[in-house]
Amino acid sequence: MQQPSRKILLLILPFLLIGISLSPAFAAGADQSKIGDFQMWYVHNGQKQPLKDGGGARIEMQQLLNKVDHLAGLSSFQLPNKYILIQFHHPVVLSVFSPIKHPFQTVIVTIPKDRSALAHLLIRNSQGSWVEYHTKRSLSIFLQKITPPSKKDGRVI
């Protein structure tokens, strides 16, 4: 009786090992959310200037949103005088593992006042408030990809 159970075990074991080795790859894929098309504007003192995607902004924004790791707090009622406004064509719903549990369509990436300051990621919630989130990926990479040539002068926008 021991021989048939051993054969069954030997037949099943490779499939179990393959399943165990592939599970981290599937979990990593499930954590990645796709975003749709969006429009961007450079906003300075309330004046909006449209920005065109040079090709890398969409990919970078997707990576930024997939790397959001925690809520950083509510933003003040007044927005900064310089920022990038991103409006998605359709509501974005991130992975179940994301701290952003609600669909959203509007994102702001603030522009630092100088090199020592940090950019911030603000997402408009369903109540219309701006909520700041922290991301493991640097926001400066996104800003570098979308900075219009007329705004580059050796400094941050």
Question: Care to describe what's here?
Answer:
With 157 residues, the chain is an alpha+beta fold. It folds into 2 domains: 1-30; 38-148. Helix content is 30%, strand content 30%. The chain is built from 3 helices and 7 strands. The chain has helices at 2-30, 57-66, 139-146, and strands at residues 38-44, 47-51, 68-74, 82-92, 104-110, 121-124, 130-135. A 7-stranded antiparallel beta sheet has the order 2-1-4-5-6-7-3. α2 packs antiparallel against α3. The longest helix is centred in the first third of the chain and has 29 residues, at 2-30. The protein is elongated, with a radius of gyration of 22 Å. The protein starts with a helix and ends in an 11-residue tail after the last helix. 15% of the residues are buried.
Query: So what's the oligomer here?
Result: single chain
- Please trace the helix and strand order, writing H or E for each element: HEEHEEEEEH
Main beta-sheet annotation:
7 strands, antiparallel
Helix content bin: 25-40%
As for the number of domains, it is 2
**Rg over alpha carbons:** 22 Å
Average pLDDT works out at 79
Which segments are poorly predicted (pLDDT under 50) over 5 or more consecutive residues?
21-31
Number of helices: 3
Measured between the Cα atoms of the first and last residue, the distance is 76 Å
Strand order of the largest sheet: 2-1-4-5-6-7-3
Strand-residue proportion: 25-35%
Shape: elongated
By DSSP, the count of extended strands is 7
Structural class designation: alpha+beta
Keywords: Signal
Q: Which terms summarize this structure?
A:
single chain; 157 residues; alpha+beta; 2 domains; 7-stranded antiparallel beta sheet; 3 helices; 7 strands; elongated; signal
